[in-house]
Write a structure and sequence with these properties.
Layout lengths: L3 E3 L4 E3 L6 H18 L4 E3 L9 E6 H4 L3 H6 L12 E4 L11 E6 L2 H14 L1 E3 L2 E5 L3 E4 L5 E5 L14 H13 L4 E4 L17 H14 L3 E5 L10 H17 L5 E5 L8 H18 L4 E5 L5 H13 L7 E4 L7 H7 L6 E3 L18 H7 L8 H11 L5 E4 L7 H12 L6
Parallel strand pairs: 2-3, 2-4, 4-6, 10-11, 10-17, 11-12, 12-13, 13-14, 14-15, 15-16
Antiparallel strand pairs: 1-8, 5-6, 5-9, 7-8
Helix pairs in contact: 1-4, 5-6, 7-8, 12-13
Length: 425
């Protein structure tokens, strides 16, 4: 075992110039350590006097030039890139100076991910916290989109029973491993309106969660299916635009809207795109920078050919990119070839199901298949690592499809590999 430094009496240093999100990252660190050890670290704007260890935390551009950062030298390997971080324990020089730990980020997200890396590196037990004396972790994400759908609806096996506090606790755990996107749903989907487990109405929960995600600087993507029968009927269009607009306005933060072409939905591509032309105007009234994504999943061969012809001949200016999800009549490499280069592709991998799905378990014993069904607890770290390796290079990242806690291991495997594809599973 290598040398360790005790951090049991440490102080977390967050400079006075820090933003609310940097303070939120510090709170995440302090509260998660206390939860596991009972040790409660103090947060202050300056390093303590004497021999008490200090954990200096913040965005590198705001820390640069302070005495504490100069003592650590240049921390730019990870922090020089978007969402990157450095977590370093510099050698303690002679003279009895107090130990220091630096957690620096290129931006607020980098600080959160640096805090996550530190939390995963600490040695924690009841009443004690230690860190390796030679700890050095530098990182920046390989893929810009790393997210998971946590839909608050009766269809899934977990999320409908959650309170806002449960959601926040879960989002924290995902952020620790590098998640930067959470996908939620509008009140009206292909689902029951409510059930006995739901503690908060859907639209109210959406507003609560959008504010919570903003505190952690996590993007909110909204999965919004177009399920009406006739999007050429002026009355339907008017009613739908009003409904969609109300949902958009309820979100304090909204970074992206993803409209699946099918599953659910059954609108021809040309009609759907014309409707989304109008949705874009409604969306950008309340969220001018929000992206719009569209998938061709569920399209027939005739429809998918029409769709790609439309993208080439009359490319929608509002369309950010395409989503590759289940039930798409193309392999991902072929879809990348047929898609105009201007449009990135985002993965929508089903990590929840084990057969009759996008990624069935190969060679699964029929006895387990018949008795467990398609949604059992299903950790598949090696399988999904291979799937990520094969598919991710065609994309800018992923937002996984999840039905609840049964696929927890898979979420963290995807998140970690989206950050570092060479990570040891």
């Amino acid at each position: 075992m290598g040398m360790r430094i005790s951090l049991t009496r440490a102080v977390v240093v967050v400079p006075a110039t820090a933003t609310p999100r940097e303070h939120q990252a510090a709170a995440l660190l302090v509260e998660e350590v206390q939860r596991r050890t009972g040790v409660r670290w103090e947060v202050r704007p300056e390093p303590p006097e004497g021999d008490a260890p200090a954990i200096v935390l913040g965005v590198v551009s705001r820390l640069r030039g302070t005495d504490s950062l100069n003592a650590a030298g240049s921390l730019t390997s990870g922090s020089a890139r978007a969402e990157g971080y450095d977590v370093i324990v510099p050698p303690v020089r002679d003279g009895g100076e107090a130990p220091r730990v630096w957690v620096t980020g290129h931006d607020a997200r980098g600080v959160f991910f640096g805090v996550g890396r530190l939390l995963r590196s600490l040695h924690m037990a009841e009443g004690t916290v230690e860190v390796d004396a030679d700890l050095v972790h530098r990182g920046a994400p390989a893929y810009p989109v790393r997210g998971h759908q946590l839909g608050y609806r009766p269809k899934n096996n977990t999320y409908d029973a959650w309170s806002p506090e449960d959601y926040e606790r879960y989002v924290r755990d995902l952020v620790v491993f590098g998640t930067n996107t959470i996908e939620l749903m509008p009140p009206n989907t292909d689902d029951e309106d409510t059930n006995a487990l739901m503690k908060v109405p859907k639209l109210e929960m959406l507003g609560i969660l959008s504010r919570m995600l903003d505190r952690y600087d996590v993007d909110l993507s909204l999965w919004y299916p177009a399920m009406q029968n006739d999007y050429e009927d002026p009355a339907v269009i008017k009613q739908q635009l009003s409904e969609w607009g109300e949902v958009f306005e309820r979100c304090e933060r909204l970074d992206a809207v993803f409209v699946p072409g099918g599953d659910p939905g059954h609108t021809p591509p040309d009609v759907l795109v014309k409707f989304l032309d109008q949705v874009e105007k409604v969306l950008h009234r309340s969220h001018p920078e929000a992206e719009m994504w569209l998938s061709p999943q569920g399209f027939s061969e005739a429809w998918i050919q029409q769709f790609f012809a439309l993208l080439h001949d009359h490319p929608p200016q509002w369309l950010t990119g395409l989503v590759y999800g289940p039930w798409t009549r193309r392999t991902l490499p072929r879809m990348r070839e047929e898609t105009p280069a201007r449009y990135p592709i985002r993965l929508y991998p089903d990590i929840a199901h084990t057969f009759n799905c996008q990624f069935p378990v190969p060679g699964w014993d029929p006895a387990f298949m018949r008795t467990l069904g398609r949604e059992p607890i299903n950790p598949r770290p090696m399988g999904y690592a291979r799937i990520h390796e094969l598919l991710a290079p065609y994309t800018v990242g992923f937002v996984t499809y999840s039905e609840g806690a049964n696929d927890d291991v898979n979420k963290f495997v995807w998140t970690a590999l989206g950050f570092d594809p060479h990570a040891d599973v």
